[in-house]
Amino acid sequence: MAEGAELIRLGGGYRFTEGPAADREGNVYFTD
């Protein structure tokens, strides 16, 4: 993470996720 960057919660309440991945545009993908 860049200095001064802020974490943002994208979701919650998931019981199992399989390796979140991000593309070049910053989109985050995962399975539930």
Order of helices and strands: EE
N-to-C span: 25 Å
- Provide the spatial order of strands within the biggest beta sheet: 1-2
Structural class determined from secondary elements? mainly beta
- Averaging pLDDT over every residue, what do you get? 86
**Strands, count:** 2
Q: Which value, in Å, is the CA radius of gyration? A: 11 Å
Secondary structure elements and pairings:
Layout: E1 21-22, E2 28-29
Describe this structure in words.
The protein has 32 residues and is mostly beta strands. The protein is 0% helix and 12% strand. The protein is extended, with a radius of gyration of 11 Å. Strand 1 and strand 2 form a beta hairpin. It has a two-stranded antiparallel ribbon with strand order 1-2. The model has no long low-confidence stretch (mean pLDDT 86).
State the gist of this model:
This protein has about 30 residues and is mainly β.
Structural features:
32 residues; mainly beta; two-stranded antiparallel sheet
